[in-house]
């Protein structure tokens, strides 16, 4: 007696569906994303983000806390999404802080140049 393809179709379909469903949940835990978010927050804090980008660093800290809570609750997709958002907000806070610091330094140098020009024009050599 010959076996037909129809006899294998249902078990084959079940196997394909089982493999597909396990493939969707095979992402590793978002430990790298959480670590990256923590490092981004620390980097922003080191650049005085609390002073120059308080709202952005606050959002990053909040998202990082939420990501850690989601990870503890086993909600890895939420943890991953929140960790990536935290890292992005922390990077934005870092960039804004660096911009503010560089702008302040530039303004200081311009002021020094203007003062030196004034001294040269008036002959004040102090």
From TrEMBL:
The organism's place on the tree of life at top rank: Bacteria
Domain DUF4398: 33-108
Signal peptide per UniProt: 1-26
InterPro entries: DUF4398
Keywords: Signal
Protein name per UniProt: DUF4398 domain-containing protein
Lineage of origin: Bacteria, Pseudomonadati, Pseudomonadota, Gammaproteobacteria, Lysobacterales
């Amino acid at each position: 007696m010959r076996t037909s393809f129809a006899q294998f179709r249902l078990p084959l379909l079940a196997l394909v569906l089982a493999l597909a469903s396990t493939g969707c949940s095979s992402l590793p835990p978002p430990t790298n994303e959480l670590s990256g978010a923590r490092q981004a927050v620390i980097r922003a804090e080191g650049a005085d983000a609390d002073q120059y980008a308080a709202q952005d660093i606050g959002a990053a800290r909040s998202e990082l806390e939420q990501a850690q809570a989601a990870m503890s609750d086993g909600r890895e997709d939420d943890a991953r999404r929140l960790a990536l958002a935290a890292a992005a907000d922390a990077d934005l806070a870092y960039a804004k802080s660096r911009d503010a610091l560089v702008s302040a330094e530039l303004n200081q140098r311009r002021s020094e140049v203007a003062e030196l020009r004034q001294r040269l024009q008036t002959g004040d050599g102090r």
